[in-house]
Amino acid sequence: MEERTRAYLRGRFRDYYRRTEITPPPEADEREWGFIPWTDGPGTTMVRHRSLLELGDIEDFLERKRPRHVYFSVGRYDDPGAGSMGEKGWRSSDLVFDLDADHLPGVTLGEDSYAEMLAICKDALYRLLDFLEDDFGFSELEIVFSGGRGYHVHVRDDAVLDLERDHRREIVDYVRGIGLEYDHLVDRETVSGLGRKTPTERRTLRIDGGWGRRVHGYFMAFIEELLNLPEDDALERLTAFEGIGEGKAKATLNAARNNREELEAGNVTVHTAVSQLAERFLEEAVERDNAPIDEPVTTDTNRLIRLPGSLHGGSGLAVCRLDRAELEAFDPLADAVPDPFVGHEIAVDVEEGGEVELGGKIRTVEEGPQSLPEYVGIFLMARGRAEKEKE
Amino acid sequence: MQRLHARYPFLEAARETVASETVELATVVERDPAVVERAVERVVASLEDGDTGEPSRDTRTELLSYPVARVLVSAVEENVLVRKYARAEAEEAHDRFRTEFEETVELKSAASSGLTRETLLSEFDLAGDVRAVEGGYRIGVGAYLPLAAGCWGDEWRLVNRALSDGEVPVDETELHALLREAVRARVEEGLPFAVPEEIVDSLEAEVARVREILADLELTREIDTVVPDLFPPCMTALLDDIRKGEHLPHHSRFAITAFLASIGMDTDEIVELYRVNSSFGEEMTRYQTDHIRGETSPTEYSAPSCATMQSYGDCVNMDDLCERISHPMAYYERRLDDADDEEIEDWREAELEEA
C-alpha cells in the first residue's frame, strides 16, 4: 500500500469516526483493548494490553488514532492493562461465536462470490441462533456482522460468564454435534410383562430437547415420506439403506403404519429395525443442523474481538450490530457500507480488477486509473487491489 | 448441629462452628492426638481406599479432624494427594447424603443429621439453578457444565443431553453425582495452602507417613511395560471384548482404558491396541483416553480397585494371585516381577517389529 493510499484511508476513517456514535461493550473499562494501526509494509503489529484508562474515551480515541482495526477482549479483568494474562486477573468472559466464510463447509473459496459466501454464512448463523436461543435459552445475545467474511455472536447471560475453557469446549461440541452418541440420546426403561416371560427394555429417543429432538425430527420426516409412498416405493427407499434387507424393511413399514403414535413419542422399541433406522438419522441431523463455528474463538476466554461500530480495515465496511428482527432483511454488502462513503466518486488506480458486489449491485471493475464510487474505491484499496490516484 | 457438621465438615456452617469453638488449630494439632490420628486416617484412607476411613464416635474429634486433615494435605504439598483426598471426601459425603435423602421421616437412622437436598443445593448456591420436575430435575446449563466436567462418562457430555431452554434434565442419581462434584470442588478449593512453620513441625511424623504411602502409589503408576499376557484376568476379559467389537458399558470401558493408561500407554497406543476391531470408535476412544489421562480434564484417573471391579461385575476368571491382591495394578506388578526379564516383550516393541 502506497503512502498516499494509506493517508487517504486514515483520513476517511477519521471522518467516519467523527460522524459515528460508538456504543462500547458493557464493562468496557474492565476489558483489554487492542488495535492495529495503519503501517507500511505487509506486516501488521497489534498494539494490545491497553486499558480504556490508557486509551481514554473510546470515541475520542478512534477519532484521534483512526486505527485500521480495533478490538476489545471478551474477558473482563481486575487490571486489563497488565502485560500478561496472569497479571491481568481474570474475572469473567463473554461467550463468543465466530462464523467465518473461510471455514464454512459449502463455501468454495475462489469460486463463490463474496455475496454467496456471506449468504451461506447467514444460514449457518441461523442454525447457531437456533441452538443459542432454543437449546441454551440465552437472552443477552448480540449479533454482529464482522465487516469481513462473517458474523459474530456475543453472549452475555450471567450463566456463561464464569465458564472456563473446558466448559466452553462442551458448548462448542454441542453446537457442532461433536461426540454425539445415539446410545445416550435414548432412555432405557425396563418394562415387565407385555406377555413375555422376561422383562423387556423400552427404548425411547429423548425428544424433549437436545440433539435427540433433532434426530427425531429428521426420522419422523422420513417416516412421513414413507407413508405417502406406494408400498413398493416405500420398501425400495428402506432397502436402499445399508443393512436393511427386505425383512427389516417390511417390519419398519408395518411399524410406521401401525405404531405411528409410539414413533411420534420417540419410542423406538416397536421393532429393532426401527431403532437401527432412527440411528441413521443422527448423521443427517448433525450434517444439516450443526453450526460450523470457528472453535478456538469460543473456547478462548481472553480472545480479542472486533468492536461493533468500528470499521474493518480490510474492507472499509462497518462492523454492524444487528437487531434480531432486522437480521432477515440485512444485506451486509449494502447495509454495512458506511454512509460517509456513499454519494461521491474518487480517483483510484485499480491493480486487480474483477467483479465487486457492493452497495446493492455487481459491477465489473477494469484495471487502471479511473473514477469509482468512494465505497468501492475504499473497498479495493483496503483489500490491496487498488491505490489512491491524485484527484 | 454438631452431628451435621461432623458428618459434612465441608459445609460453611461447619467451618464457622470450628472457628467459633476451637482455640488455634496449632494448639489442637499439638495437644489433641485423637484429632490428629483421625485426620491422618482421613488422608491415608483417601489414598489407600478412596474413602475417609472410620468416623470417630466423638463428634468433636470427627469435626476437628477435617480442618486438620486439610492442614496435613497442605503440608505434604502434592497435587495428586489434593486430588485424591478431595475425591475421597466427596465420595464419602455422596454416600452419606444419598442414604440420608432416601430415608423417610419415620425411618431416620441414628446417624441421620437432618441434611436435606434443599440445604445442600443452597450450600452450593444451586438453589436457583435446580428445580424439581416430574421424574427428575432440571439444572441450568451454566451450573451444569462445571459440575459435569468432573463426571466420568460420555452421557455427561452436553452434546448427549436433552438441553432445552437453558436447562439440562437430570435424574435424581445424576443430581446427586453433580452435588458430589460440588463437594469435591469445595474440598479442593484453596488446597494446598501455606501452613505455618510450627504446625508443620508438630506434624512432621504424619507428613512423612503420608509421603511414604504416596511414594508407594507413585511406584505403581510408573510401570511402563505393556505385556498383555500378564494382564489380570479382568482386564484381559475386557480387552478381548473390545477387540471383539462388543459394546462395553462405561464403567468397563473406563476400567480397561484407565488400566492401560496407568501402565504407561499413551492415547495412540491404546487406540492401536483396540483397533483389531474396526468398530471400536477411534474418536470416542481418543476422547475418553485423553480424559482419563488428565489431558482434557482436571483429573488423572487411576484404574479401579478389585472391590470396584467386583461391584460392577467386571471381576471375572479369578485366579490364585487375585486372592492375594486388592488392585488389578498390583496383580500386573506381581506378574511382571515374577516374570523373567528375558520373557518380557513389550507389546509396543512387538508392534514396531511388525511394522
Automatic annotation (TrEMBL), chain A:
The active site is at 98, 100, 294. Its EC number is 2.7.7.-. Keywords: DNA replication, DNA-directed RNA polymerase, Magnesium, Manganese, Metal-binding, Nucleotidyltransferase, Primosome, Transcription, Transferase. Coiled coil: none annotated. The keyword Metal-binding applies. CDD domains: AE_Prim_S (cd04860). Heterodimer of a small subunit (PriS) and a large subunit (PriL). Belongs to the eukaryotic-type primase small subunit family. Catalytic subunit of DNA primase, an RNA polymerase that catalyzes the synthesis of short RNA molecules used as primers for DNA polymerase during DNA replication. The small subunit contains the primase catalytic core and has DNA synthesis activity on its own. Binding to the large subunit stabilizes and modulates the activity, increasing the rate of DNA synthesis while decreasing the length of the DNA fragments, and conferring RNA synthesis capability. The DNA polymerase activity may enable DNA primase to also catalyze primer extension after primer synthesis. May also play a role in DNA repair. NCBIfam families: primase_sml, PRK00419.1-1. This is DNA primase small subunit PriS.
Automatic annotation (TrEMBL), chain B:
[4Fe-4S] cluster binds at residues 234, 306, 315, 322. It holds the Pfam family DNA_primase_lrg. Residues 225-326 form the DNA primase large subunit C-terminal domain. GO terms for cellular component: primosome complex. Its cofactor is [4Fe-4S] cluster. GO terms for molecular function: 4 iron, 4 sulfur cluster binding; metal ion binding; nucleotidyltransferase activity. Keywords: 4Fe-4S, DNA replication, Iron, Iron-sulfur, Metal-binding, Nucleotidyltransferase, Primosome, Transferase. One of its GO terms (biological process) is DNA replication, synthesis of primer. It comes from the Archaea. Binds 1 [4Fe-4S] cluster. Heterodimer of a small subunit (PriS) and a large subunit (PriL). Regulatory subunit of DNA primase, an RNA polymerase that catalyzes the synthesis of short RNA molecules used as primers for DNA polymerase during DNA replication. Stabilizes and modulates the activity of the small subunit, increasing the rate of DNA synthesis, and conferring RNA synthesis capability. The DNA polymerase activity may enable DNA primase to also catalyze primer extension after primer synthesis. May also play a role in DNA repair. Belongs to the eukaryotic-type primase large subunit family. This is DNA primase large subunit PriL. The gene is priL.
